[in-house]
Design brief:
CATH superfamily: UDP-galactose 4-epimerase, domain 1
Structural class: mainly alpha
Distance between the termini: 17 Å
Number of helices: 5
Order of helices and strands: HEEHEHEHH
Strand content: 5-15%
Oligomer: single chain
Helix content: 40-55%
Number of domains: 1
């Protein structure tokens, strides 16, 4: 749960299971990050082993940045639960890069890789996983 999607899904699963009050504790929601399903990342690594150029640096990501607020909104929408959101000062970073987005053009050119698993699927499966852990 140290990563934002998993952390948010865990909190929502606990709320849904009744083991946590219906309040999400969050950090900076304005930052935007490049979210990529780990299965797509592993597939990219595999293709790089086969087709990547030795000594080159490759960025792996979706190639687009999504705000943490949008991630939170999607997870809460999947929950079907009324949830209050509160900023937790302990989750705020003293220095925050506003936007991080991977340039995946070299990865795509050298391997033909494209992300295949939609963010909605990643969110739904992560939320289901946390709900199953709490049963």
């Amino acid at each position: 749960p140290q990563f934002v999607v998993s952390d948010f899904c865990k909190q929502v699963a606990e709320i849904s299971a009744g083991v946590r009050e219906p309040v999400m504790r969050v950090g900076n929601l304005t930052a935007a990050r490049d979210f990529t399903d780990v299965r797509d990342v592993v597939r990219a690594y595999s293709l790089l082993i086969e087709h990547g150029r030795s000594g080159e640096v490759y960025n792996v990501g979706s190639g687009r940045a999504i705000s943490i607020q949008e991630i939170l909104d999607r997870i809460i929408a999947h929950s079907g639960t009324d949830i209050t959101v509160e900023v937790d000062p302990a989750k705020l970073r003293p220095v925050e890069v506003p936007v991080i987005r991977a340039d995946i053009s070299k990865l795509q050119a050298d391997t033909g890789w494209q992300p295949e698993i939609p963010l909605e699927q990643t969110i739904a499966e992560t939320l289901d996983d946390w709900k199953n852990k709490l049963k």
